[in-house]
Design a protein that fits this description.
This protein is mainly α and 193 residues long. It contains seven helices and no strands. The longest helix is centred in the last third of the chain and has 36 residues.
Length: 193
């Protein structure tokens, strides 16, 4: 293994420049996911809910095993309750991922409405102590409006949320790809490869 000047072969910098391709893969996967999310946002929401269900099932099984083996960090009763709740949620998410995503979006809608009202009330109460309280009020009004829109049309809310996720994944992916090629160039230019 070559070492770069000032950076030993086992350094983080040396490791990053030799493994630039890992960042490239992350970036490519993120770009592919982002394109798919933008092209089919409702299907993306369903797939994400399905994967959330798979993760919940796996976690539930792991906690169930730890409950029966006596290695759970909480009481056996709590571990069993959590394991069964995780498995039940996971099975529901796998069986009907779109409904699961819609229900989760309704929770998000309720949270947005409550959070928006909280911001408005907070801004009114502290208006004499701070300046620019109108920004908190506008933020609260926007949160309430978004929450109401999500509640009135959960499928459209899923589409919008998936589009946001897709666009962010595209941006993240492009930045990862740029970083990967910069690391590769840097590694070549100072002999770290």
């Amino acid at each position: 293994m070559g070492a770069s000047p000032g950076f030993p072969a086992g350094s983080l910098f040396g490791t990053l420049t030799r493994n630039w391709w890992v960042l490239l893969l992350f970036g490519l996967f993120a770009v592919i996911f982002g394109v798919l999310a933008v092209m089919a946002p409702v299907r993306t929401a369903a797939v994400l809910a399905w994967w959330l269900g798979i993760m919940a099932i796996v976690e539930g099984v792991v906690v169930l095993v730890s409950a029966f083996s006596g290695s759970a960090p909480v009481s056996r009763g709590w571990a069993l309750f959590y394991a069964l709740a995780s498995i039940a949620f996971g099975v529901l998410a796998v069986i009907n991922p779109l409904a699961t995503a819609s229900v989760l979006l309704l929770f998000l809608a309720a949270w947005l409405v409550v959070g928006g009202i909280y911001r408005i009330v907070f801004a009114i109460r502290v208006r004499k102590q701070i300046s620019g309280e109108w920004m908190l009020i506008v933020s609260g009004l926007l949160a309430v409006a978004l929450g109401v829109m999500f509640a009135l049309n959960p499928i459209a809310g899923l589409a919008v949320t998936s589009l946001w996720i897709g666009v962010l994944a595209l941006i993240y992916g492009v930045l990862q790809i740029i970083a990967a090629f910069r690391l590769r160039s840097l590694g070549k230019s100072i002999g770290a490869m």
